[in-house]
Amino acid sequence: MSDESIASRIDKLVAEEKELRGREQQDRDDDDSLEADRKRLRAVEVELDQCWDLLRQRRAKEEFDQDPNTAQARDAGTVENYEQ
What we know:
This protein is mostly helical. It has helices at about 5-25, 30-65, 75-80.
């Protein structure tokens, strides 16, 4: 996966995240739809974190003259539990 394809995926996920957040802010009577949107939003957030992590790995490898194609996406548990 290239930097460009990762960045493209990030752009699509950001657009979806924005749409889901907008729907979440609207008054809705359908609790099932609201719950489904919240679950999807959480999944989008996790996937975004994974994409950003992969992109950072690739850029770090390039910076240190390593093959960026050896970077691998990390599982959600790893990416979501980074210490700040």
